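2.7 Reproducibility. Because tokenized structures are sensitive to small changes in the input, we list the exact sequence used for 3-hydroxy-3-methylglutaryl coenzyme A reductase, including any N-terminal residues retained from the expression construct. No trimming or masking was applied before prediction.
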Amino acid sequence: MTDPEELAAKVREGELRIHELEEHADHDTAAEARRLYVERETGTDLESIGDYTFPAERAEPNIENMIGAAQIPMGIVGPVDVNGEETGASGGAADGEHYLPLATTEGALLASVNRGLGVIRTAGGADARVTKNGMTRAPVFRVKGVAEAAETVEWVNDNFDALAEAAESTTSHGELLDVEPYVVGDSVYLRFAYDTKDAMGMNMATIATGEACEIVESETPASLVALSGNLCSDKKPAAINAVEGRGRSVTADVLIPGELVEERLHTTADAIAEANTRKNLTGSAKAGSLGFNAHAANVVAAAFLATGQDEAQVVEAANTITTMDARQREDGTTDLYASVSLASLEVGTVGGGTKLPTQSEALEILGLRGGGEPAGSNADALAEIIAVGALAGELSLLAALASRHLASAHEDLGR
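Resulting structure tokens (single pass, no recycling of outputs):
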């Protein structure tokens, strides 16, 4: 059946369910039939939603009940100047200049990030490094009490190799790095951490952990209650991610000469450092925030939307800590040291939304589409570039606050 009108009529009459249309037509026809049905049920015109440029079949792994696409304006910032190449094992994955695509509806965001990047570039570029990597999944088990909990923990600690063999049998890429037990009364949580290479790896970690849980159940008194016990912790604010990290932990920093701060940011290193301390550190502490930054999630969210990351995991990006320190040179000039540390940046360059056409093109702009050589290097590079973008956003916003230019900047841009 290829007539969308006929398909829509069958849905209205109850002969077909809305999720069954792909069984009777190609993906684009099914999407059109749904639009017709929704238009008539709600009295709306979905012309723009239906004006997408890629075959609907390409989105089949990413969406159900497709009716079209949401179009978000995308721009670029940059070049993002990353000093990644270094002798020895401490070299970063991203090196050189990269244009970073950002998709957002927030006016003035890209202009602000670009201003920060210009200052960073003039200062000689930023350093960025992934310092830890581990996608986590933490199942919860039931035991009778503390004695069985201790027995389970002891077995897990003594049998890492068996757990790794079971988990890694489900994937050709993932590698089990660690299993950390936690006990709360008659509940045992096991926080599995994986190197998922260039994939963000949430699905990989879930499937692998499910296999390992069967071994735990067969060898210990513990009974699996849920494959995710929220100690992972995915898509929600959690101190464990701020402390232990999840996905990639990445830090970026730059030293900006004092004269450059005054010339380009129209303020001083001391003023920016004070604004950061009173706003991002003291203010965040008073608010009970898990993150100590100005708006790092802004840049991360825009980068996630542009490059096909799981947008709900932006919540973990808010764990970022921003530092700004005034450093005196021997000649009395005060320079600005600026850094961002993102404890839990969950990114990938293969799988999930990265396969969608516009997101794939955005990764092409970065030169990071698909798997890297060695495996994991593309995702590492993406994390480092996003971190430098976040650093630029922090620098620009704090400078605007310190110089009292924030409101006038938004007025000048009409945002």
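The longest helix spans residues 377-402.
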